[in-house]
Every structure is written in C-alpha cells, then in structure tokens.
C-alpha cells in the first residue's frame, strides 16, 4: 500500500506545485511583459494620432524610429542576460523595468524626429535582456515537461497587450489637453508610469528559485529542486556539462542549432512587429481606401480585434502541445499559414474582410511562439542557455528593426503596403521550411521534437 501510494503522492505534489507557480508567479511576470510590450509599441498608437503630423514624419522615418529601438536592445542583450544569470533575475528584471520606465516617460516631451530616434535607441538599451531574461527565469521554476504550458500562459500577455492596450491608448489619447499636452503625449505619460511602479514592486515580489518561495510547502520545494537537479544531472551525463563565461558564449555562438533557430525566430518576429508597428497606420488608411470615418477609439478597438482570437488560439495551441508533446508542426504549420495569409489581406474588399485575414496571421504567429521557446532548452543549459536564448532573441530584435524600417521604406518606395507585406509572408514561410529542415537533420537534438523531452531547465543552477 505504501509503495503504491508514493507515485500518487508525488503526482499530487507535482500538480500542486505547478498550479501555485501558474497562479502566484506567472501572472506577475506576464504583467511585467504586458507593460514592456505596451511601452515599446506605444509609438505605433501615437503616430497616426498626432505624433506623425506634429513631428512631420514620413513612413520611412516612422519605420526607422520604430526599428532603431532594436539596435540598442541588440547591443546589450547577451551581456544583460549573462548579468541576469550572475546577479539573479529578481534584481536584474526589476532594474530593467525601472530604467525603461524612466526613458519611456521622456517620450512625453519629444519635439522632433532626431529626439524620437535618440529616445527609441536609449529605450532599447534600457529594455535589453528583459524578454529572454523572463523566459529564463520562468524556465528555472518548472521541469521541461511543464515548460510549454508555463511559457504559453506567460506569452498570453503579448496579444492581450494590444487587446487591452489599444483601447487604453485610445482613452489616453482622447484626454487631449490634460496637463497642457497633446493626446499622444498624454498616452506616453500614462503607459510609462506603471513600468516604474511595477519595477519597484518586482524587487520585493519576485523570488530567484523555488527553495526560497514561502508560498510553496517544503514537500513542493523538495520535489521541484529534485526534478530540476535530476534534469541537469541527466544533461551533464549526456556530455553537456555546465559551462560558464566565455565557454558558455562559445557554446552558444558555435552551435548550428542556435543559429538555425535564430533564423526561424527572425521570420516570426519580422511578422509580429510589421503588424504591431503598422497595423494602426493601415487601419487609419481604411478611411481613404473604403470611404469610412473612424474615431480614435474606433481605430483603437479595430486594432485590438486580431489579438483577442490570437490570445485564445495561443492558449489552446500551447495546451495541446503540452498534453500531446511538442511536434514539429506545432511550429512549422502556423508559420506557413501566417505567411500565406498576410499578403491576402491586401486584396480584401472591405475593412471587415481585411481585419479577418490579419486575424489569421496574428493567430498563427502567437500560436507558434511559446512552443518555439520550449526548443532551445533541449540542448542548452545554465550559462550556455542564457547566452543561446539571448542570441536567438537578438536575431528577433534584428527582425524588429528590419520590420519597422524596411516596411516603412518599401511603403514609401512602392506607394503601398503590397510589397512590404509580401516580404513579411516570405520570411514567415522561411521559418516554417527551416523548422521542418532542422527537425530532419541527422543526429540533431531538435529532430527529436516528436519524442518525450527530458532536457533540463535552463537555469536550474541559477544565482542563489
């Protein structure tokens, strides 16, 4: 009886521990991500609602302002993630939030395109490392078999940022004249202060590892620590010992798998930010293209439409991958569907049809992203995971810069969004093709996506 009850007790402990992490930790980190994504994309709401006219921005200039953020981000992303691994997520993520909140607040008083470029660049430096740091932080709390679920819950913050953030931005923009500011300046003021406040709260709320969580029972702590330690022992036994410093960087930067995953991520993020930065502008163009008239709040609500279904699809897609095991098609199929759908939006004959097709693209992108992030930890651990995941995300930030600048430049060059959105579709299809190819490479760890994943949590031996 005692021997038979032990697995049942362990299962109950596992369910309880994962449930508590899902309720106590993930929503707070997701809220941080919500504010993070809102601050970096607030410029997309400001441009068609006064900022573009007040600062005399062309589409190319706005695209450059949108994208230059990622240059600063790229410059410090890998060093920032290595610092997080050294000093601990609680301190580093809190520091990042307060810093970017202060910089974001300065957008309230920007006066010309040059100041806009400079602030966007500095904002990228301030935010560097937040997203991959959050991914690593959550990964250190759960065994690999639960990671897709946890990252899926965390990733819900990104589409919900637009679902909630777009109407919020609209409400703030409609407060034109508050404190003597234009509406778009009021919006920057309103979305920046929460980052500073939340950063201070994060310093006291976040916990670096399960052993220090007072809201876990001792049995739950012991189970989590044992699982994470066993996974790392298994990885080291397979010949992938923990690496540090330069060795970790060399491991990540010389891995062909990391570089291929970087290119796959590039395609997804190019599509994500092309939509994020230019969808409000495209919707603003409906008034001329379809002879309609929308208020500021109308445009904000229309902008939010594609992202609500995307959040629902993300949740159930991640849940399916968690229950049935991550498959190659969980990543490749959305890439192809999204790549084919985005150019079709250009040939719709009404605003409703255009938004419907764009919704398919948004659903495709967000379905794949949390599942994608469960892949790197299959072959990277510890400091190498910090460096490798930061490198992959760096390529995503290169895509963020390219999506903003190239889309704006091609729009000015061609006179419309047909050429730039065909390019978006091409990059997303590239991601799907590369994922299939990677999964079929002989001897590649990623080829075992269809098999049970027993790899370690990337930061099981994080800063104590």
Automatic annotation (TrEMBL):
Keywords: Membrane, Transmembrane, Transmembrane helix, Transport. GO terms for cellular component: plasma membrane. It is a multi-pass membrane protein. One of its GO terms (molecular function) is transmembrane transporter activity. The lineage of its organism: Bacteria, Bacillati, Actinomycetota, Actinomycetes, Kitasatosporales. It is found in: Cell membrane. Residues 25-443 form the Major facilitator superfamily (MFS) profile domain. This is Putative tartrate transporter. InterPro entries: MFS, MFS_dom, MFS_trans_sf. It holds the Pfam family MFS_1. The keyword Aminoacyl-tRNA synthetase does not apply. Component of the tartrate utilization system and may allow entry of tartrate and tartrate dehydrogenase. SUPFAM superfamilies: MFS general substrate transporter (SSF103473). The chain crosses the membrane at residues 21-38, 58-80, 92-111, 117-138, 150-173, 185-206, 258-280, 300-317, 329-347, 353-373, 380-405, 417-438. Coiled coil: none annotated.
